[in-house]
Amino acid sequence: MDQVRIGRFIAEKRKEQGLTQAQLAEALGITDRAVSKWETGKSLPDASIMLELCSLLKITVNDLLNGEVVTVEKYNETMERNLLEMVKQKEQKDRQLLRMEIVIGIVSILFLFAMIVVGAVLMKLEQPKWIFFLLFGIGLAQFLVCMMFALRIEQTAGYYECAECGHRHVPSFAAVTFAMHVNRTRYLKCPVCGKRSWQKKVLSKE
Fold it and tell me: Do 103 and 52 lie in a common domain?
């Protein structure tokens, strides 16, 4: 999708409705800076407010994603193209998030290890023992927080594929947290067939 073209289209339709950036932002419950970013092509509206935005601008979502008012003849063609583009962008975003999960895990482990080493060195220098436990506690606390954040990423980015029926789904955070796992393959219950199996992480819905 051409973000610059979409941005110009949003600005054009906003002005047609007699709205300022601030008025549009207030109606959507966001900042006028966000609207400015759309109109300059720096970002796209979030999917959660697209319907409301289109209603205010008197356009369809298909028009918005295409950057122009789509004629009836081209409607199905452009809608299919835009949907495919949105799926592609989601897969790219999920891939980036899963890479970030690895970085978060590595950094949190290194930080915990560093706190333990520093604490041990200070104890050898005959510093009070409570300093070691304090540093260990700080390292452990950040490790646990980072692990929860990483688990949330793994839960929401992409899908898990049932080994029995092939259904792809996003399990609950609790299911991901407490499931047995080997790397990103987890032993989960399928919401469709109801069977438990070792389910692999995949990026696409189909």
Answer: no
